[in-house]
Amino acid sequence: MNMREKAMKVLIVGSGGREHTLAWKISKSSRVEKIYCAPGNAGIEEYAECVPIGVLDFPALTAFAKEKSIDLTVIGMDDPLVAGVVDAFEAEGLRVFGPRKGAAILEGSKAFSKDLMKKYGIPTAAYENFDDANTALAYLETAKFPIVLKADGLALGKGVLICNTLEEAKAGVKEIMMDKKFGTAGNQMVIEEFLTGREVSVLSFVDGNTVRIMTSAQDHKRAGDGDTGLNTGGMGTFSPSPFYTKEVDEFCQKYIYQATVDAMKAEGRTFKGIIFFGLMLTEDGPRVLEYNARFGDPEAQVVIPRMKNDIVDVMEACIDGTLSDITLEFEDNAAVCVVLASDGYPVKYEKGFVIRGLDTVKAKEDDGYYVFHAGTKRTEKGIVTNGGRVLGVTAKGHDLKEARANAYEAARWVDFENKYMRHDIGKAIDEA
Ligand code: AMP
Ligand code: GLY
After folding, report:
1. Do residues 85 and 75 make contact, with C-beta atoms less than 8 angstroms apart?
2. Which of 60, 74, 409, 423 is most buried, judged by most C-beta within 10 A?
3. Cα(161) to centroid(ligand 1), Å
4. Is the CB of 290 under 6 A from ligand 1?
5. pLDDT value at residue 347
6. What is the distance between the alpha carbons of residues 118 and 79, in angstroms, rounded to a whole number?
7. Are 217 and 299 in contact (CB under 8 A)?
8. What's the pTM?
9. CB proximity list for 366: less than 8 A, separation 6 or greater
């Protein structure tokens, strides 16, 4: 078969803005004929046939992939990766992009990732792991504040508590370990030193040995302007980060990226897929705050539109161990994504409101405007809101300021009842 022939069938697993961005990018591949998405959303439908299979239903996913002769499955989300979806596909002889269960633990257990960093000298905040609430409470008596408590397992980005006082921290330990607010994610916890500095997200492709860094990005995790309010899945992003300087990059190349990939290999947990490095640029240099084992959401919405490579080539190189043959290329511009949420997110919000103006943004894709669906659904009334984070409106610009102005302009073209957004996405760039 001519490898450039448009003959591949791809299955994407997930249903958010990240998966919409992946579906859009994969649809641009010169090799892809047909895309399926499980379960998908109303935006993904434009590029993919969406099938109602749950992301944790591995028998149904693998049966579907076999039935449709899928050539490549791309896992967007953390939960199925941590639960072993890649192992399930491989056991059926199916090609799949993402880390196996034994490697996805890099995201799935914060205690594991902290111990890995300590063992291999990868710079991170000082910490202790606990599997018993009383020992954790006793430790707090002599700790310095503020201090950071982290539930060990996956908790939708909400299992991290920054505590200013002993009282708050004690209440936090109780929430995580005794009341099990984050479920089994709180069977163990990490207590770590509070760091200050700029946060940067750096995503990378990894083939087990080689790591290729993508352009940098920054998320805005709090719900409200000025970084106030509750933590969310992410309210907006910009890329590149002006704070990710050449100096920072050199440090991370030397002490963090390759060191992490080598450490995983040395542990018998060879990592293939995406490693997302969540970094804090402290006065003493970059420190790893966390690892994720997949694209960020909404980091993907600003990084992928700037990527020049055919993403299917890069994913296949990760699977085949040939990433060293690939040079990643990104456009020399900037992108900003503003998340349009339902008012009340992340606590309580209504769904089912008709969304207007989607076509206005779509008509301007060639000018660098995109609308990526997160929580939407197609109904008889049209496309309606169906989640806390509803849409991600991304716009490019020659520089970050232009991209931000464009993104906020496009955010006005789309409307629905109870529409909520932050107004200061990318404001930090004014200080760069
Ligand atoms: P994580 O899920 O580990 O990235 O934590 C979520 C958020 O909590 C991060 O994006 C940071 O804003 C904050 N955070 C995590 N660890 C620390 C730390 N050691 N010091 C200060 N802030 C932190
Ligand atoms: N935006 C942060 C994440 O995807 O975890």
Report:
1. yes
2. 74
3. 8
4. yes
5. 92
6. 25
7. yes
8. 0.96
9. none
Q: Which of 214, 237, 292 to mutate to test the pocket of ligand 2 (most atoms within 8 A of CB)?
A: 292
Ligand 1 pocket test: pick from 164, 199, 202, 289 the residue with the most ligand atoms within 8 Å of its Cβ: 289
Expressed in angstroms and rounded, the spacing between residue 392 Cα and the centre of ligand 2 is: 14
What number of CA atoms fall less than 13 Å from residue 148's CA on the CB side? 18
Residue 132: closest CA among 140, 124, 142, 123: 140
Residues 6+ away with beta carbon under 8 Å from 246: none
C-alpha closest to that of 94 among 63, 57, 48, 49: 63
Distance between CA atoms of 49 and 431, rounded to whole angstroms? 44
Name the one residue in this structure whose structure tokens are 């899928």. Answer: 70
pLDDT (tens digit, 9 = 90+) per residue, 250-302?
999 999 999 999 999 999 999 999 999 999 999 999 999 999 999 999 999 99
Ligand 1 centre distance from Cα of residue 289 (Å)? 6
Kindly report the protein residue whose alpha carbon is nearest to atom 3 of ligand 2. Answer: 296
Nearest C-alpha neighbor of 116 from the set 273, 213, 261: 261
Q: Are strands 32-39 and 8-14 parallel, antiparallel or unpaired?
A: parallel
| Helix, coil or strand: residue 395 | strand
Residue type, 35: I
Ligand 1 atom closest to the Cα of residue 192 is 19
Amino acid at 58: F
Q: According to the model, what pLDDT value does residue 2 have? A: 47
